[in-house]
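Raw record, unedited: Phosphonate ABC transporter substrate-binding protein
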Amino acid sequence: MFKKALFAATALLALATGAANAADLKELRIGILGGENEADRLRNYACLAGHLKKEFGFEKVSLFPAADYDGVIQGLLGGTLDVAGLGASGYAAVYIKDPKAVTPILTTQQKDGSTGYYSIGLALKSSGIKTIKDAKGKKLGYADPDSTSGYLVPLTQIPKDTGAPNDKFFASTQFNGGHENNLLAAYDGKVDVAVDDSSGLGDFMDGYTSGTFHKVVAKGSVDPNKLVEVWRSPLIPNGPVVVRNALGDEWIKKIADFYLSLPKKDEKCFNAIEGGDFTGYVPVKPDFYNAVVEVRKAAIGG
């Protein structure tokens, strides 16, 4: 009887503590992946911070544009970040280290209804490279070690087209500090092929409808007439918006509902933070990323 009473009291205390923590949440900390330069990331996310403060009355919404993907991953694992948009491989990295650290709540949906995107290989048209097989003995640029489209997928899928591991087929491979820097490295001739994220939908001259290529074309940083797509991966699951589980179920639901309503509430803000022409968010569960988790475990571990 004593044990049952003690258990019941402990359970009630945990529920009360959880409710208190939810009610006392004064600051929300949002991690931003290192896909483009810091100033652009902060400017694009400023509207999101404003909406969150107004919606929930937070005293502060802090934006943390990490220098690399691992900064966001470690922030979620260490409890210094509460919410973040991750790539599928980044989520896999968190899940492998601690399956209970975060909950994936939503992912983006393309205009064709799909919830996936591609890794594409881009090269200068003047290089004469037309397919990935033409790049034998050339330099391959990766984005970030924790990027799905900028590393994990090209690492495991390009060899299926070339017949050799990347470190054998190419003269060299290198990381270029994020997606934007990687694409610019190819554009500036520092590498021969750069792999980056793309919807693969729409007009190549627009940089397609979403992804890094789309962003840099929209900003005028590159002229798409000078580039050519030389490789495309199989479809990759769009990355999730995740919430740290320590916030509790109440806040996880509130934040999910907020994000779901954002595209209708402020389409311009939604497009700014997601960087493309999406229709909105759709709910997603952890098992949507099971295949990516297994590929990451096999290819590069945690």
